[in-house]
Amino acid sequence: MAVWLSLACAFVAALSYGIGSVLQAAAARRAERSSNLDPMLLVRLVNELPYVAGLALDVVAFVASVIALRDLPLFMVQSALAGSVGVTAITASIAFGVPLRRSERVALAGLMFGFVLLAVSARPQHAASLGAVGRWVLVSGVALVAVAGAISARLDDRKAGIGLAICAGLSWSATGIAARVLHVPSVWWHVVQDPVALALAVSGVFGVLFFATALQRGSVTAAAALVFAVETVVPSVIGLAFLGDHARPHLAPVAALGFALTVSASIALARRSEPLPREPAAPHSF
């Protein structure tokens, strides 16, 4: 029962993230833009109902993914989350009036088939400990990504959109890894002393800021595809290499095929193009 609950949570997370991305994009494209990374963007966006609704769906997705990560390996859960780009593509097609091409419909079918293969092959298990050094490496990685995101925001729209989407993906990679390895002590409030909890909270906030800024600079589906491609590959590799994640016995080829399908389909959907946001407004940052 726990396995099916975890799989259901992974599916709910993918659905919520996919719809939430489009709602956030609709609001982000109307918000005042800056030539730099602007933390006040999030303050302005909370006055937009679509963004608040999208953020609420992100919270639902985050909780669901954390539940799924307690029992399922990172490569399974993160690949399922990558499938949310398919939900984004369908929802954006309806919202922005851009029909899906045949190649995109094929990619969506590949995402669904890949998810089925992963669900069949993933072996439920708890993660191995990162150790003291690994925990602080995770925190340091979050700080480096924050600097990279600030630099990316200063580039022209196309490059900034790509860089910010990648940084959002790396931030949420750290969130996924932290959620997978976080140990909640019996005295639950002692968890605030754990650097993994710090990495979980900070990387989540940076991911939201980077993604909101990326949505202002280009295609919502392209941004989502880049985010989830990075968010799938990086944690999956770390989970397999350091956290003891494995497929079920004799089903490693099935897991590999499912993983390849979800990632390649996400990259294929990155070629999708919706109407670009309006020209930048006067700078509003510090």
What's the quick description here?
This protein is mostly helical and 286 residues long. The protein has helices at 2-28, 40-45, 49-69, 74-82, 84-96, 102-121, 131-152, 157-181, 195-217, 220-242, 252-269.
Could you characterize the architecture of this molecule?
This protein has 286 residues and is mostly helical. It has one domain (2-269). The chain has helices at residues 2-28, 40-45, 49-69, 74-82, 84-96, 102-121, 131-152, 157-181, 195-217, 220-242, 252-269. Helix 1 (2-28) packs parallel to helix 5, helix 7 (131-152) runs antiparallel to helix 8 and helix 8 (157-181) packs parallel to helix 10 (220-242). The longest helix is centred in the first third of the chain and has 27 residues, at 2-28. Residues 273-286 have low confidence and may be disordered.
| Strands, count | 0
Biggest sheet architecture: none
Tally of separate domains: 1
Distance between the termini: 51 Å
Question: What's the rounded overall pLDDT mean?
Answer: 81
Note the total helix count.
Answer: 11
SSE sequence, one letter per element: HHHHHHHHHHH
The quaternary organization reads as single chain
Strand-helix topology:
Layout: H1 2-28, H2 40-45, H3 49-69, H4 74-82, H5 84-96, H6 102-121, H7 131-152, H8 157-181, H9 195-217, H10 220-242, H11 252-269
